[in-house]
Amino acid sequence: MAEAFIVEAVRTPVGRKKGALSSVHPADLGAHVLRALVQRCGIDPAAVEDVIFGCLDTVGGQAGDIARTCWLAAGLPEHVPGVTIDRQCGSSQQAVHFAAQAVMSGTCDLVVAGGVQNMSQIPIAAAFRVGAEYGFADPFSSSTGWRQRYGEQPVSQFHGAEMIARQWDISREEMEHLALASHQKAVHAIDSGWFEKETAPLTELAVDEGPRRDTSLEKMASLEPLAPGGRLTAALASQISDGASALLLASERAVRDHGLTPRARVHHLSVRGGDPIAMLTAPIPATERALAKTGMAIGDFDAIEINEAFASVVLAWLKETGADPAKVNPCGGAIALGHPLGATGAKLMTTLLHQLERAGGRFGLQTMCEGGGQANVTIIERL
Question: Which residues cross the membrane (predicted)?
């Protein structure tokens, strides 16, 4: 099978809820990273064969195939198509998978993968409200088949995160220590200039807006839990955010014909499902399966990105995999840096690639929990 190479990866700085990027149209957010991607590669955009973007809640400014809209808003060639996909929080990681698979199958030579989300403009429940206008209370309770299989159990990421904390006996204090470390690592990465190469500043925002320099264990301890008697607080969850990200994937032929310099090779791609009620546990079996398929061990990776949807998700994954915490989210995670849903998968891949280059690592693994109880795993090898 042909190889798929990552040639370039770029993201916007991430804006916090109602922050500097909140008024930027989603198409313009996506257009910004697409222009930056093309400029950094020096590639003729007319040679791109498809644009695959992740996005959730595709209503309002995110409706109408936002991948296509972003490309056109960037002023790029009209003959290049675009498609928008939804694998919940893993949408743009799946976009990377589809792009790599197109290259590896030999059907495409140059594909852009990425994602965009403006959660300030389109809150996470916006699609549910639109559905309610057409007579659907939510995607689950109105399904006879779903009720027959799963009953009336609540389907919520918050419920799932609490289930994980209790099942793995993860205390609030453990989670608060992880959250504090996330902010500290993110602030250190910003102050050290680690994100400068991977970000394309906008007029509205030049640096990630989420990390809190003044947070502390004492401040976190003062917060009320998200549910009565629960262990989770807002400080232990990913931030509502706005942003976009994009990568260029190329075949060996495209690398040769366009004079490109590949920076990483896609070593492995897989996705796995788990319990949709616990919802956020799938990175555990997905990682186990990826290691089995590749014959690799968790200690083989020089850097790992697992999305900090909630602190309990990461801590349960660490307990099950035995991964070295020092290698996990070394630049901070979504608790500090934010989680612009449809853009996060490609954002994490961008950070993973740059971290491997900065530290001289070889292999990197990325995984993240996704709605419906799913998880993608991507393994890349720095070249």
Answer: none
